[in-house]
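YM 10:42: Serotonin N-acetyltransferase sequence, as discussed on the call
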Amino acid sequence: MSALSALPFLKPVHLRSPRSSPGGQRRHTLPASEFRCLSPEDAVSVFEIEREAFISVSGDCPLHLDEIRHFLNLCPELSLGWFEEGRLVAFIIGSLWDQERLSQAALTLHKPQGSAVHIHVLAVHRTVRQQGKGSILMWRYLQHLRCLPFARRALLMCEPFLVPFYHKCGFEALGPCEVTVGDMAFVEMQHPVRGHAFMRRNSGC
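YM 10:58: structure's back
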């Protein structure tokens, strides 16, 4: 069984009622809203959203297209996309890390034996921003991680102005991050992730 089919909260949150064709036969429609893990085939859509969201602000992207494909090939289960009528509108991409704090190597490496999930990027399409989608997607992503037996905590680095957003999502600041990108400095934050056995007993995972 795939990880996707085993996680009930990744199923579409609302499905449109099937429409009837003039001949009375039902035809399939895309779900109005759906959460699922991403695949390498989603990489271009992911990069288009990310590029628009970040280049205008910081002049660069956390992940470039080849890096997106790299992580979606290695660890697609650590990603989550929000699709509306088949179109990607928001996403998160993560990988595993095996140290207490993030280092420069964490930007490009996936450590399969690690227990910390490094959240590389969260981005929302410009047409649906200011609707709370980032917070909802992060909540869904943390629920997803709680059903992965190896995940113990989530780590991320963000610019200081984003600390209040992630604090509302349940993250705590660990202090300045060792990682720098150009002249940009970051705050490192973490969120505990409960074990698989606990969640299986309490949430049906």
